[in-house]
Every structure is written in structure tokens, then in C-alpha cells.
Amino acid sequence: MQVTRHGKQPVLVFDLGGVLVDWNGIDPLMAVSQGRLEREQARQFWMHTPEVALLDTGRVTPEEFARLMDERLQLGLGTAAMLQALDDWLQGPYPGVRELLQQLGAHYRLAVLSNNNALHWGKIERQFDILPLFETCFASHHLGLRKPDLAVYHHVQQALQVDAADIIFFDDNIECVHSATQAGWQACHTVGFDAVRQAVQAHRLLD
User: What is d(CA 143, CA 153) in angstroms, rounded to the nearest whole number?
Assistant: First the structure.
């Protein structure tokens, strides 16, 4: 098992959507925009739109966000249909996630750091049965802080009571990876669960 340069075992911190959990807000958003949004524009919508930041930090409800999103993008779906679409876009854990987390959890402390919201977090808690595998879960809508702002990485490090260099982080958005690196974490850009497996192997976490 890996130890860090401080001679300590690392703490493994995972994003959820697009890393451990099948969440695809990009392709469906491109579809409902009827081609007005290209792939990178759809990805950037979730990272940088002010309304998304309000949702992620718990400042608007999912219902309010659905209305704001429908209006901003001029989708013409209406609040109820937009809210249902947001719920539908979040599927379950990728196949093999529970098994890998159980293997890793036998040797390392595991935590979640996720930009999230009340709609999706409630579904994850009710249906996905993976949160109990983590020691701690840091959800942006509970903290009032979101990635890629540096403040959330400092908060998590302090809460975990470890050195920054002793954290290995897995995230699918490159902006979040860059901020984690800036905070002193070891950060892996993992788009999808196959990339997580590859990063686990590269870090020799289960050798």
C-alpha cells in the first residue's frame, strides 16, 4: 500500500458525478438546447454559470434552479419538466464502484468532495448505497462552498486533519483538478470510472 513522502498513508478524496456515479449533464443538455450548446459550452455551463453556483452552494432550491436554468437557456421546457430532467440525468454508481471502494476502504481513509444539491444528494442517499463507505462526505450545498474555489479544498484538508500532500483527489473537471493541485493535493483527472481504476493502479494503491 502506498505511503506519502511524510511516511503516512494518503487519504483518498473522490468527486461523485462523472467519477463514481453516472451523471451526464452534458449530452442531455446539448440535446435539449437543440444544438445551440456544443459539448464544451455544456460542460462550462455546469462549472461557471452563476445559477449553478447558487444551486451548488444551497442558495436556491432545485425547483428555483430548474426555473432559472430553463429561462437562462431558453429551453421552453417549464420548471416541472426541467426538474424531472435534472433528476433523470443522475443515474446510479458505475459498475464495480462499491467493490473498489470496499477494497480501498480496507486500507485508506475515504472521503467525498462533490459539487452537489438537495435534489441529487437526496437521490444518492436513498438509492445508491455508497455514502456509508466513506468516512466523511463534503457536499457543496451543505458547506456553502464549491469547487474549484480554493476555500473548499482548505476546508476539507482542515476537517480531515491531514497535510495537503497526503490527499489524493479524483475529479472529472480539469478546473477542479488544477485547484486541488494549487492547494497542494495530489490530484488525478479521472473522467469516468475506468480512469479512476487507472489512477488507482498508477498510484499503486492496491499493490
Answer: 11
